[in-house]
Amino acid sequence: MPFSDLNQLLSFLNTALITATTAGTIAAFRSGRVRGEAEQFITTLTALQAEIAALKDKIVRLEASNERLRNTISAMRIALRQRGFNVLIEPDTITITDMSGRQTQTAVHPPTGQDGSLKDR
Hints:
Blueprint: H1 2-82, E1 86-89, E2 93-97, E3 103-107
Antiparallel strand pairs: 1-2, 2-3
């Protein structure tokens, strides 16, 4: 009966080897997936941080541009006032009144692109 005991031992070792291989494969797959997800998270986080930095820079540039435009409009209003024109700027209209009291109104339209959509400034 030694052959029977050896056969049982080999059968047990075969089952143990298959079980260990399966467990190792599952563990390696999970570890690889977690590592891949972590790398993807870091890549996404880095990209978002770069986008935030670019948007902050754009805000600074737009604020400086807005200040320059405010100063230009103010200078134009002063120059026109010196020539006898009063300029009233409202969100949707600009009204210019001359010394005789005549008024001219112009509607303010938002800038649009060629396709009719609002332009991103």
